[in-house]
């Protein structure tokens, strides 16, 4: 039996510091640019064409997310060199970070896959995960998948986050009831 440790909705997001290609360090879940929340997108890596497509589509929502106080960061277990190579297929302006370790993947409760061949990649990698971290550092929204075919549709995600961030709705963290 395989056991995974999923992050609880409403729980504190773990402190993970990663680097971008300009050698700037980011703490996941700590928003920048005047935002109070952060969208953390974990993607499989440069080998995944679905991830490339998703990241490029996410760029189209960056301004809308900023308007509701949410910034974006995307991370993978790729190396610096792999991220540099991936940049040729990406058209994004939000931070892309590399070097997520297998231990950090487990801390985030992500599913981890073994490459099918050396042509895919040279390291175990995480399957997709998406986390929205609020101003208290708590997990407001979480979506974890075991394959690249299932992840939040971006328009629906945007509409939901706009609803949650509207103070008139007083929308609590869902799924945070004690067991």
UniProtKB/TrEMBL annotation:
<keyword id="KW-0575">Peroxidase</keyword>
<dbReference type="InterPro" id="IPR036249">
    <property type="entry name" value="Thioredoxin-like_sf"/>
</dbReference>
<dbReference type="InterPro" id="IPR013766">
    <property type="entry name" value="Thioredoxin_domain"/>
</dbReference>
<dbReference type="InterPro" id="IPR000866">
    <property type="entry name" value="AhpC/TSA"/>
</dbReference>
<dbReference type="GO" id="GO:0004601">
    <property type="term" value="F:peroxidase activity"/>
</dbReference>
<keyword id="KW-0560">Oxidoreductase</keyword>
<dbReference type="Pfam" id="PF00578">
    <property type="entry name" value="AhpC-TSA"/>
</dbReference>
<protein>
    <submittedName>
        <fullName>Thioredoxin peroxidase</fullName>
    </submittedName>
</protein>
<feature type="domain" description="Thioredoxin">
    <location>
        <begin position="7"/>
        <end position="163"/>
    </location>
</feature>
